[in-house]
Write a structure and sequence with these properties.
Elements: H1 2-7, H2 12-18, E1 28-31, E2 36-38, E3 42-51, E4 54-56, E5 59-68, E6 71-73, E7 76-85, E8 88-89, E9 93-102, E10 105-106, E11 110-119, E12 124-125, E13 129-132, E14 135-138, E15 146-155, E16 158-159, E17 163-172, E18 177-178, E19 182-186, E20 191-192, E21 197-198, E22 202-206, H3 218-250, H4 252-264, H5 266-289, H6 294-324, H7 330-345, H8 351-379
Parallel strand pairs: 1-3, 2-4, 3-5, 4-6, 5-7, 6-8, 7-9, 8-10, 9-11, 10-12, 11-13, 11-14, 13-15, 14-15, 15-17, 16-18, 17-19, 17-20, 18-21, 19-22
Pfam families: DUF8173
Signal peptide: 1-24
Protein name: DUF8173 domain-containing protein
Length: 383
């Protein structure tokens, strides 16, 4: 499932707010059929998102109900409740959703995680297919390998490579064709129609854990895990909200300067942040080993961890200001930034990437701003 993890938005945080313009700030968003947009990345969000036009560039969409019936000349990455892709995507498609239906033309690979997933008849998959979900149906040819993990899985068309399945119930209909090996893990043998064609080997592996919905209350387990994760992230976000508001009201000018640095020099901030995150601990450990520098290293370690925590505040403030474009107070802008990142962190597998890039950008921008502030103060002989 590494492909599913990698779908999450490797640079999701950066693209989310540094796209040349932010789309769909209303409840509903629609790109009309006669419209062509050349923008990379192109970000759309709302309660409903309908992309019927042409986008030249990668598309990132999030919402309750998402429909992509136009053409995306690039990658498509979607997170939503009900997702339908019946247009054309020239590169990869990566989707996380509750109900997912793909019936369009996909030039390369498809990676999907969701509840009910239907790779419908009439779709075209030019590469590999990786799917994880509850009820999964594959009713169209796939050019490459197919990897599936789910509760109930049905395969009804041609697989151009190998077929690997781990599920409670597995069924290959009369239309199923597997060009290479068919390897599966299940509680019992798969239901394979006599007319189904498997060119390679068929390998059955007994599941170490029974995956059948009747034997495993996956819904209850998933709900409990989800509630625990949401509660923890909510508490963390509320703490950051309070600390950030205190910092913003005590030092509004400095917070604004750090946000401005992030806006003007994002790549410099990223580079500085990367070096500080990974090299500072090493340097401080070496300093501790000198014995004489041990007390200094302890103080610097404390400051380092404080900086790591506060780095998020500057990114959240910058993100909030980016969204509202100065139309509201700084406090509300910061609160909006915290809310957005809280919602993004709820997307499975995204939290790690989000935290990493928030840390790198924020710490880097903070360091650049402190250095600039120090130079200005020295020039004015203020310190």
């Amino acid at each position: 499932m590494r492909k599913i993890i990698s779908l999450l938005l490797s640079l999701f945080l950066l693209f989310l707010f540094s796209a040349t313009s932010v789309k769909a700030q209303s409840k509903n968003f629609s790109l009309a059929k006669d419209k062509t947009i050349s923008e990379n990345p192109y970000f759309a969000y709302g309660e409903t998102v309908d992309i019927s036009g042409v986008v030249i560039g990668d598309v990132y969409a999030a919402g309750g109900e998402i429909t992509v019936s136009g053409k995306v000349d690039g990658d498509l990455l979607v997170a939503g409740g009900n997702v339908k892709v019946d247009g054309e995507v020239t590169q990869d498609v990566r989707v996380f959703g509750g109900q997912v239906t793909i019936s369009g033309k996909v030039g390369k690979n498809i990676t999907v995680a969701g509840g009910n997933i239907d790779i419908a008849k009439g779709a075209s998959v030019g590469g590999a297919l990786v799917v994880a979900g509850g009820n999964i149906t594959l009713s169209t040819p796939v050019a490459g390998n197919v990897e599936i993990a789910g509760g109930n899985v049905t395969v009804s068309d041609q697989v151009g490579g190998r077929l690997d399945v781990a599920a409670g119930e597995i069924r290959l209909t009369s239309g199923a064709q597997v060009t290479k090996d068919f390897t599966y893990w299940a509680d019992h043998e798969a239901q394979i129609d006599p007319s189904a064609k498997i060119v390679g080997k068929t390998v059955f592996n007994k599941s170490p854990v029974e995956l059948s919905p009747s034997k495993l209350d996956t819904k209850m387990i998933t709900q409990n895990i989800w509630k625990a994760q949401v509660s923890g992230k909510l508490i963390s976000s509320l703490s950051l909200l309070v600390i950030g508001l205190i910092l913003l009201n005590l030092f509004p000018g400095f917070v604004g300067k750090v946000a401005a640095t992030l806006e003007k020099s994002p790549w410099k901030s990223l580079g500085k942040g990367f070096l500080l995150v990974f090299l500072t601990p090493l340097a401080l450990v070496i300093l501790m080993l000198t014995i004489i520098g041990f007390p200094i290293a302890l103080i610097l370690f404390a400051l380092y961890f404080v900086a790591l925590y506060l780095a998020k505040v500057f990114v959240f403030f910058w993100a909030g200001k980016k969204i509202v474009s100065g139309k509201t107070s700084d406090n509300w802008a910061y609160a909006l930034g915290v809310l957005v990142f809280f919602l993004v962190s709820l997307i499975p597998f995204a939290a790690g990437f989000v935290k990493l890039f928030v840390l790198l950008f924020g710490l880097g921008a903070l360091t650049v701003s402190i250095k600039k502030f120090y130079k200005e103060a020295r020039a004015k002989q203020a310190i």
